[in-house]
Design brief:
globular, alpha/beta, 15 strands, 11 helices
Amino acid sequence: MKQPKFVTFGELLLRFSKNDHARLSQGDYFTSKYGGSEANVAVSLATLGDHVEYITRLPDNPIGHAGAQTLMQYGVDTRRVLYGGGRIGTYYFEPAAGMRSAKVIYDRSGSAYYELKPGMIPWREILRDADVLHVSGITAAISRDAADATFEALDVADELGVRVSFDINYRKNLWRYGADPRQTLRRMLSRCDMMFGDAIEFEFLCQRSQPPFTAQDASFEMQMAEYGEWFDQLHAEFPRCSKWLMGMRNMVASNHHLLTALLYSDGQLLKAPIMDIPDVIDPVGVGDAFMAGLLHTIYACPGDDQLALNYALAAATVKNTICGDFNLGTDEEIRALL
């Protein structure tokens, strides 16, 4: 059977943090790691043995080239990354500690990706042999030109019959160029075949409340009938999307999370076990691990939606134990957790 080809598109970022859970205002030194939602999906898929190509625009300087080389080390195809512009986008991350929430400060205005314009990327050449194009709401949130380039990619994917994977990834602090985020994200959702979002993002996008996930341990009972009605309504509104994956997290403390997920697939609602994670190391990129796990299993084990859901949850659980944006959990580790 032909190995599927995944293409992910988005902005590669440089993440800065202080060591040992220090606040951004403390200490003299920052540590840095590359990351970004769509790059995280690419690295996770490559770690699982999939063929994945990452498309972005990076500055033509040592920082930009080092970012591409970092992805290459994990097996991601970066041959058609564009180079230009003056700087890479960055963000500053202060991890949660105890009852103190995490803090994220973005610095992305004027980045190489911010200045990306429609027509710069040869989408027909890139997507002609692709099976899936993965984008997220972030790809349309950075700038108007980047949003137009995202919809250009979606147009070509439709033209070539490439399936579209979409992560809501609503980041309210990024939408600064005047577009209506809910309207734009709904346009993207209407063009996708598979999607992921956490419960809060689902509520924002669809403006419908849902039963709360307030688990304190793995014995929590999900209100499946209410969720079933909720997903039936969503699917009626966006009929093209055949698989809806919703991640759900309850934070008992900064390092103690309860994690589960629901998958609505072809009219059937499935639930995953509840994972009790008492020693969270780094929760950044957990949603990306969910999406990569789903995509990998859909093609590796076609027709088994329950396995796809459970595998996606296991992949996300493993990510909570790994420092940095990338999920480096292997297929062997994820299956052992299953």
